[in-house]
Amino acid sequence: MMDVLAGFGVVVAVIAVGWLLGRTEALGPGARRVLANLVYLVATPALLFDILLRTDPRTLFSENFLVIAGSAVLTGLLGFLLFRLRGRNAADSLVGMLASSYANAGNLGIPLAVYILDDAAVVIPVILFQVAFYAPVTLTTLDLLHRSRQAHLVRNIVGALRNPMLLAALAGLLVGYLRLPVPGLLSQPVSLLAGAAVPVALLVFGMSLVGTRVRLSGDVLLAVALKNLVHPVIAGLVAAQMFGLTGAALFALVVLGALPTAQNVLTYALRFRTNEVLARDVGVVSTLVSLPVLVVVTLLLG
Predict the structure, then answer these.
(1) Is residue 275 left, alpha or beta, with left meaning phi > 0 and alpha meaning psi from -120 to 50?
(2) Helix or strand or coil: residue 223?
(3) CB-CB contact of 131 with 165 (8 Å)
(4) What 3-state DSSP class applies to 261?
(5) Which of 14, 230, 262, 267 is the most buried (most CB within 10 A)?
(6) Which segments cross the bilayer (predicted)?
(7) Residue 243, exposed/middle/buried by CB under 10 A (0-12, 13-18, 19+)?
(8) Residue ranges per domain, the chain?
């Protein structure tokens, strides 16, 4: 447990450096966007591919994948129903559903997995499920609710396939499954770029905290409670009761469930001009709340 808590210390220290860089604008006013693009387009895809070169793909699609998918869907549906009961329309409730269950598996999930779980590979099923299934289905439903003439599941799947993290993961899975030899001319540069993913992602997170202002409305508090508290509880119950998982496996799945809301949700909300303020505020608040929640999870299960 002390090693895990020490990992938290490392994460917080790097985040603090990022906050200081953002506060002083030492890297310039546009640094956060540039670094965020570096993480999203280059470093994290390289890390995913590098991990999968050393991971048996068959181990990713086991009970863990079912728990990840099932807990996200159950939490999301609960969120949708609660938002509807609060009088929100179907489109707003769908964004609330995503805000309650769509995890920040890339920018924050991977660094936390490295330092808390000592295994970044556990995050890959979350990315695959969310980007390849959860987002396309939900976005198609939003398309239909907005009576878009272009509403089409295939179009949204094609859009998801442009995600560099998904492309890297699929490429890594294919190489691993076929056991194709990867020449050093490719693997070594990929490994070098992968090394930037975790520290730069944490720096970007710290920089994003500068000047952040949110409004704690009832909807925001509901979505944050679902994402930070209910989601990990459901993940733990499904893992333990349905699949009999214990120990490190159970701990990892609860940690993944407690990850904050992804910034992708705000992107989707902006695309459909639906519940944008909720998506923005839940992303910020759930991120701040996630760290103390993860410390508690570690003390209980780590």
Answers:
(1) left
(2) helix
(3) yes
(4) strand
(5) 262
(6) 6-22, 34-53, 65-83, 95-116, 122-145, 157-178, 190-210, 222-243, 249-270, 282-301
(7) middle
(8) 2-301
pLDDT class of 155 with cuts at 50, 70, 90: low
* CB of 302 closer than 8 Å to CB of 251: yes
Residue 267 CB contacts under 8 Å (≥ 6 apart), including other chains: none
The SS3 assignment for 215 reads coil
Beta bridge partners of 261: 103
What is the rounded CA–CA span in Å between residue 101 and residue 125? 15
Beta bridge partners of 291: none
Domain 2-301's class? Answer: mainly alpha
Q: Which residue reads 């895809």 in tokens? A: 45
Lowest model confidence (mean pLDDT) among 20-29, 91-100, 261-270: 261-270
Nearest CA-CA partner of 126 in 190, 38, 48: 48
What is the predicted pLDDT for the residue at 173?
81
Residue 86 has, within 13 A of its CA and on its CB side, a CA count of 17
Q: Is 196 exposed, middle or buried (0-12, 13-18, 19+ CB in 10 A)?
A: middle
Token pair in block for residue 254: 């609860």
Structure tokens at 72: 């996200």
Give pLDDT, residue 160.
Answer: 62
Task: State the amino acid at position 7 in one-letter form.
Answer: G
What are the distances in angstroms from CA 7 to CA 4, 27, 268? 5, 26, 32
